[in-house]
Amino acid sequence: MKKKEKTPYKIPTITKTQQKKRLMGDILLITLPCVALLLLLRVFFMIGAVPSRSMYPLMDTGYSMIANRMAYKFDEPDRGDVIFFKKGNSFLTKRIIGIPGDTVAIQNGIIYINEQPIVESYLAEENSTEPLNGINYYVVPEDSYFVLGDNRRDSNDSRAWKEPFIPIVNIKAKVICTFCLNPFSKGIAYHDVEDISMMETHSGVPMYDKDNIVVETTESLEKGDISGKGESINSTLPVVTIAPESIEETTPGTEDTNEQEGVSSEESGSTENTETTESSTAAESNEGMIDSGNLTEE
User: What is the pTM of this model?
Assistant: First the structure.
């Protein structure tokens, strides 16, 4: 009986066509999930970094934020919401204080909504709310909102603007949370957005004084002076955007043309800066974020 001869083992060879197919498969395996994640972020969320302190202590320099683009597609903005909105030719982040139909009064260093004092536990202890241009009483019109920065002594907001209210069509996203992952500067931190609550009438806070209201701008305060004590607003860092926002020109008469805000965009190594001029009675301050995608203006 003849023994079967062993055939020598041959190492399989890979052709150049097979190598290209494998390479393409590996590339698609990596890129497709990344593209899907980017599309998800562009449609539903915004991730950004804050360069100024006008929303301190919720947001500090070097913090990042996550905002929900779809939040107001099915619901109305509410008091306490921190929003990302268009103001003139810039995009800002502030907190909603007054909703349509509200009266907002600034007295005794606190806010009164519909003549009722409110609890703002998110403010720093040394923070008090003072008028920026002499006006201390506002009636919020329909489909508009009154907004303030949490850092009341260093925020350019509805108190300073010639047109103090933000139309609902200008609100683009709702901030969900803020965080810092740099252990060497701020440490690791995470903050939820807190709500506004009404204060008990027997809390010891001074009652609303209906005779102490001012509805017209006074010229006595110097530019940037918060309370007439020479304390100026210093937050002037510009908005920085990875994917440039599509910003339409403001129609004359519909927005403050005297507002100073900066927008610089960076895409593929290019940088674009735009600036407008702030109102002579308004304090100079910018609030910004790095956006993960474009906003399409309607």
Answer: 0.67
